[in-house]
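Troubleshooting entry. Yesterday's outputs looked truncated, so today I'm pasting the complete records for two proteins to confirm everything comes through intact. If either block looks cut off, that's the bug. Protein one:
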Amino acid sequence: MPMGNCNCAPVIGDRVMICGKARFESASMRHCQHLPATGKFLKNRPLFNPRCTMSNERTIPTIQYGAFSQRVHEQAAAHQSVIKAQLELTYRCNLHCRHCYTDPYNSKDFFPRELTLDEIHRLLDEMQQIGIVWLNLTGGDIFMHPHFFEIYEAAVRKGFLLQLYTNGTLFTKATIERLQQMPPFTIDISCHSVTEEPFDWFTQVPGSFRAFVRGLELLRDSGLPFTLKTKAMNWNRDEMPSIRQFVESFGQEFGFTTSLSPRLNGDLSSLTYRVAPTDVVALQGNQPAAGGDEERCGISTDLFAPATDQLYRCGCGTDTIHINAWGELGTCTLQYERRLSLRAYPLANAIEMLFREVRGLRYQGESPCRTCEVHTFCDKKPSDARWECGIAEAPIPYDCDVALALAQSTLHQRLIHPLRKSDKEVGTHHD
């Protein structure tokens, strides 16, 4: 979102710099796109351009990041603008985590289908043109892409606030030093366990835990911003206190999610690691929950039926896009009901067509989801339902169980299970 002469708002600690009218001397493309990029960055270059010269009467205003984010989201909502994008650079990964939805495509047989470097550069240009502010680079593992740093540095120069997703095992001193030259907004790292044997079992790669810890130590000493993310599953749920202690020892706030999805090829084996519904309640009652683009969009303390028959009741088709490693556009990470190839359509046109379709999807049959009073506690994703139940409109029994358990715990009353109540029944009863 353009602000003054700049195409982004650079982060300074927890503040954001907003440039007003100014005369720029040798400014880099990192924050001021109207000037040519030199491609040269000093090793210890500050997070903002020090060569932005202004009159003595003018100072550079700053805004707290939270206020900046809120303002951008409000303007995006008012103008129906897309401001966030997730770009899967590759499905290549050095690990084979048992729950990973992309791992079936972590094979050399599928690598030729991935976007070329030129295609990625074109997409970065198009994302900049439509006003993307936040850009998440993910995979697979981003550092497995043969041209990662060329892509990353191009994205930095275009002014995106960059979020990197990685497993943390591929950090080296050289990698860290290169990131320090052009720091990202944040780095998100998966933390599955703090014990070597179960960690290596889950990743299916011996030595991965030691590589993970070594990477975190390098990252901690670098001063780069990072966050540790945890999936609570049935095999690691008892480790949550230890994981919390581990995360906090690196100066991070601990949080977790419990959402798991089928693999992109329809394999449901990842769902065997789900936490039991009662355990979800217990875990969320004892620990803070960390969300993500693919997680629950919110929770309510009230019971009420859905206001519309929309298939997607989250923010799907509003301000966020997802592009997979094959250049297919979706509205979020796991939305595969509608996809458009960006090899066939310009990004802006594809977004317009896709969003119109997704926003128009409605429940057609008599699914219990249409009238469910605990839907705000539910994590159901129609794309998951398509794989798990055969149809996107169908309720996912596990999600129903979890929603009921969370609602009962929150409201402190017995409720009728969504799949056992008729349309005419009241949603609660009292003992």
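Protein two, checking that the full record survives here as well:
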Amino acid sequence: MHDIRAIRENPDAFDAALARRCDAALSSAILALDSERRGKIQAAEAAQAEQNAASKDVGAAKAKGDDAEFERLRALVSEKKAEVAAMQTEAKELDAKLTDMLARIPNIPADDVPDGADEAGNIEIKRWGDVPSFAFTPREHNDLDSVAASMDFETAAKTSGARFVMLKRGVARIHRALAQFMLDTHVDENGLTEVNSPVLVRDDAMYGTDKLPKFGEDSYRTTDGMWLVPTSEVPLTYTVANDTLEASDLPRRMTSHTLCFRSEAGSAGRDTTGMLRQHQFEKVEMVTICTPDTALGEHDRMTKCAEAILEALEIPYRTIVLCTGDMGFGSQKTHDIEAWLPGQNRYREISSVSTCGQFQARRMNARFKAAGGKPEFVATLNGSGLAIGRCLIAVVENGQNADGSVDLPAVLHRYLGGKTRISAAGDLE
């Protein structure tokens, strides 16, 4: 959510920031609606004052026995009362319209975010690991003999439809091991607090974390009006809604492993094979609540936490900073981390780490107060640490052998009872 006062003070700067996102100027429409709203409020206040004054004079006219004046004033009070009610209703309707308009406008990009219209404007800022060289043509994860036997899309389609998968046997265990490894790393090494969060949330939580109203079609809603979370960013971030925290209690750094649900309404025809893009998936999420002045430092920290997971798994990756035209709706600045997938011969996104500034906090009224200071909005950040299914893909594709077997990263061995590979037959051994 945007601060209407900032738009009033510098509408040209607001429009210039939207232009960086390749969006049209909106300050004139916003300020016109704001002016109309404020006018109704002022008119209602003036009418209220007239009503109050007339109410005082009614008694005096009655005491004097001036029946005509008494009736005139009583009628005036009634008229002004109705006028006040009507103008207050109009003001509320205009306020709701203004709030809805502001809620649909994306966040302002940070100054150091590169300008660009689309992904072509993204800039690589880091590359780690050597892309593996194979003496054979590497295959995609779903074409590997060892994996395909335990990655059942047909049965999942029978029970749930397209873009679902049933993982079985060793592959299911590796998937579970990856989640455990990520959580242990974030808690024990990165100092994050583990939270077991709900996957069903209310409208307020989705709105407060900028998923509504704009992205309702990309999410699943239950028959009783609850929402299945697109990521645990929603419940973790919303934990501070309507709170005023002590500055000394910040930053709050959290992590959670949850099921995630996305209808992927805007991705028709993309990644239809394999398990790269699913309606239901699992992710280990990172969320930070901090003061605005520390947000960019926290952003770099969270990026490194995600990168370290891939390094421990020995998966080559690159980190890019998204340009203004490719950033997410609520982001001020985003780092995408892309893992190397030999089967596709390209890097693919496995983590997105974003700082939202005070954008979400303003929507959910989350504040902090320094000693002796006035309350102000917190800053919020979120990032994948990592997407488990995509990490599974990267692990098996980078560890594949000519016979279809897969060698597994050493850090996972202890989570697999000492097993080190998947045989061509699909067994852990």
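Both blocks look complete. Sanity check on protein two: The chain has twelve helices and 18 strands.
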